[in-house]
Specification:
By secondary structure, the chain is an alpha+beta fold. The chain has two domains: 44 residues; 87 residues, no CATH class. The protein contains three helices and six strands, in the order βββαβαββα. A hairpin with a 2-residue loop joins β5 and β6.
Length: 137
């Protein structure tokens, strides 16, 4: 773990756009700037999102309304190949997210705004405790 201290674009670009590289200062060695690490964008995530993803990644069947899309055929963009994006269909619209928890919250919002409360159940939501209305068990 560390702190982002800089960002640059690599000389590579692909159909998804520029590829970013982040300069990370390890938390245990913040006094020596020569010791910073250069980390590719697919490996950069907030600590909160990392812990959330780690808890939820294994059991994707618990993801309500969210799909993860990756481009396994991509040669140069490792973000697209390994991490990808999260997709949520809300009615006729498809929304894309690069953060799993944001996609899950967007789906929950859509369901809570469109599903009659008498029909909604806890299992319909990713975060049932954060839904501001009473749900059937």
């Amino acid at each position: 773990m560390g702190t982002v201290v800089g960002c640059s674009s690599s000389d590579k670009t692909d159909r998804y756009g520029d590829i970013s590289l982040y300069d990370i200062m390890p938390l245990d060695d913040v006094d020596d700037p020569a010791e910073k690490l250069i980390i590719p964008e697919q490996d950069i995530v907030s600590e909160k999102e990392y812990l959330f993803f780690k808890d939820n990644e294994r059991d994707r069947s618990r993801w309500r309304g969210v799909l993860n899309f990756v481009d396994k055929g991509e040669e140069t963009d490792l973000y697209a190949k390994h991490k990808g994006w999260y997709c949520v269909q809300t009615g006729q619209d498809i929304r894309w997210f690069n953060v799993l928890s944001f996609a899950m919250m967007a789906y929950d919002t859509y369901i809570s705004e469109t599903e009659p409360i008498s029909m909604a159940r806890r299992d319909d939501f990713n975060f049932p405790d954060s839904v501001s209305c009473r749900l059937l068990d």
